[in-house]
Amino acid sequence: MKKTKMIKKNYEFKKNLSTGKYYSGRNIEAFIKKTNKKEINLLGIAISRKLCKAVKRNKIKRLIKESYYLYEDKIKSGYSIIFLWKKKIGIENATFENIKNDMKKILEKAEIIEEKE
Q: Does the global pTM surpass 0.70?
């Protein structure tokens, strides 16, 4: 069963960006906040319009979602996670491997990933 729902509302993004803990990777940034009331995780992805056109932004979003779904079963439940693409990093670095490695480092730093044997 899928245990992740998407964050879509602006007020949800603002709340998590202001109160969540900041973690940074080489290409992506994350704001992670513990939400005690829920058994599911909330995922939000945001990329600046100034970075590139819609087609390329959507491609980056798809790559981030796919990387997240690789780790979804290992992530502890009850967290709100927002991933942002760094504005200073060009979109030519948007490869699946780069995003996956960054995400793993961020989740390990935040200590919300549990290693299953």
A: yes
